[in-house]
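Hi Y.,

Following your request, here is the sequence exactly as I used it, all 188 residues.
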Amino acid sequence: AEGVYTVKLVKDGQEYVGKVTLVGDPMLAHSAKDRALQQQTVMKLYGMLERLAYVAEAVRELRDQVADRVERGKGDAALVADLDALNKRLDAFYATLAATREGRITGEEQLREKLGELYGGVSGFAGRPTPSQLARLTTLDAEVDRANRTFDTFVTVDAKRINERLAEKGLAPLAPLSREEFDRRSAR
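Below is the corresponding structure, written out as tokens. Let me know if you'd prefer a different format.
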């Protein structure tokens, strides 16, 4: 964003502090208000992509744990059937979040790809986002919220129910990835 920033450089124990003023490109005709809306929209989309990345990673990890419990629970047909059913539901849910076909150009477009396309369109233009981009942002934000709620249901209902059955069999519980752990991993 435009403004005055303090910068600090540390070299050989010496600190050098200065100020930098960022201004809009004088060659572009976009107003400061339009540039500010563009930057706010880009940051909103970035946050939505982060939220979706967490859900997608958490679903993949939960799916892997479920597959592991299928192998360990082979002696209990009912438990294995419930685990398989949960795994199929997780697969179907993941397929709504991100393209799953092999290859770079498949034509498959899911929520992640839709968000990425909108992010690229808004961040690649220094001016005000179009009305259709802003409307799409609202729609996609609701879809990301819905994806988060769906994953929460997998954790609070499905995993909890399966964990009770796993405990009866002496098997390790499903441990869904928390947002805090995801953030720690991402910071590395």
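Helices lie at 32-72, 77-97, 111-123, 131-168, 179-187.

Thanks again,
Q.
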